[in-house]
Specification:
8 strands, single chain, eight-stranded antiparallel beta barrel, 16% helix, Lipocalin, alpha+beta
């Protein structure tokens, strides 16, 4: 009986630990480039600004929402380019310290999980800030 109580306690502790490890905004914010394609990028600047570049053209984001309570997270936005306006539903998940998995569903229903049946899957690598040159002033 003592072993069963200890096992239940351990499982409850593991469950609480797993729940507390939800994705935070800081986990996905920053500048990200599509692996293998320098002409596509996602820049999550802050809670009110996102930049999206595709085929070398920066798209204007007119509004977005992020649902971090879901796993993978839901990231939806509307964008315009020189030709048209479009809505993007997407899912995003951090798969490494500097890697995101991102699936886009443009003008189609979102899948709640990653799938090969719909949308396009991209892997994004975090852009490291380049080291600035510090100028020294000596007199």
């Amino acid at each position: 009986m003592k072993k069963i109580i200890m096992l239940v306690s351990l499982l409850a502790t593991l469950n609480v630990t797993g729940i507390s490890q939800k994705t935070k905004f800081q986990d996905i914010s920053g500048a990200w480039e599509v692996v293998g394609d320098q002409s596509a990028s996602l820049n999550i600047i802050d809670s009110s600004s996102i930049e999206f570049t595709f085929l070398g053209e920066k798209k204007t984001i007119t509004g977005y929402s992020i649902d971090l309570s879901k796993s993978p997270c839901w990231l939806d936005f509307s964008a315009t380019d020189s030709a048209s306006a479009f809505k993007v539903k997407s899912i995003v998940q951090r798969v490494g310290e500097d890697v995101l998995k991102w699936q886009l569903f443009i003008d189609e229903e979102r899948s709640p999980y990653f799938t090969s049946g719909r949308g396009e899957v991209f892997y994004l690598k975090k852009v490291k800030p380049s080291a600035g040159v510090v100028a020294s002033t000596t007199q």
